[in-house]
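Field notebook, page 241. I keep forgetting to write these up properly, so this time I am using the form the group agreed on. The chain and the ligand, fructose -6-phosphate, are recorded exactly as supplied. Prediction of the bound pose follows.
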Amino acid sequence: MEIIILPTADDVARTAADAIEEQVRRGPSVLGLATGSTPLGTYQELIARHRTGGLSFAQAQGFLLDEYVGLPAAHPQSYHSVIRDEFTASVDFAPDAVHGLDGMAEDPEAEAARYEGLIAAAGGVDIQILGIGTDGHVGFNEPMSSLGSRTRIKTLTRQTRQDNARFFDSADDVPDHVLTQGLGTIREARHLLLLAMGEAKAEAIAAAVEGPVAAICPASALQLHPHVSVLVDESAASRLA
Ligand code: F6R
């Protein structure tokens, strides 16, 4: 793991955008897109580079990490809507180049298999953006997820529902279930970019980077990957040895 400690959250966003820009300028690329607060600065930076620096996503495809079960794509908090509003509609992805899981699928198992097939057909993910939960989740692989897991339905922990309540009217409105790429799926991406900012993520980052590889901290599974860049600001790095 390459650990890069940067002074501020803006530096994390710029450094992440540099890595994504380098990949996208290399040629047709498959981008793994996280949602939540963490990557928003990176997306803002990429939008700015698209507008002023000619950075084009016309040859890129995007794959979302996860989706809430029971929210239609049109719901403002579905990750389909969030990624469109926060990033993809503001750059030049081709129509239908951004893929997500269908949270309304009647057969979640079939939906998960469809999604795995779609990622494989695209040639796999070149660069995967990841945030981390305060409980160490990546994607929505909560503690005790299998380190080799594939895309599937998962139950969110109370902690994650509380953490995400800020996007909804209350914690009770946060869906209980999600469809998420598995840890095994995520680890097939060729380059993982794990981003974290702020004190609230410091413990999870320390466990992920310096703790044992163990299902209690799902992000620790990333230690098994040959190409991971961990970009953290000083607060998120504050519990590292
Ligand atoms: C979102 C995702 C989650 C978030 C994590 C951190 O697609 O997969 O793992 O990255 O919950 O969320 P924020 O960035 O809102 O702190």
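OBSERVATIONS:
- The chain has one domain: 2-233.
- The helical segments are 9-26, 40-53, 79-86, 108-121, 158-163, 183-186, 202-210.
FOLLOW-UP: compare against the apo run.
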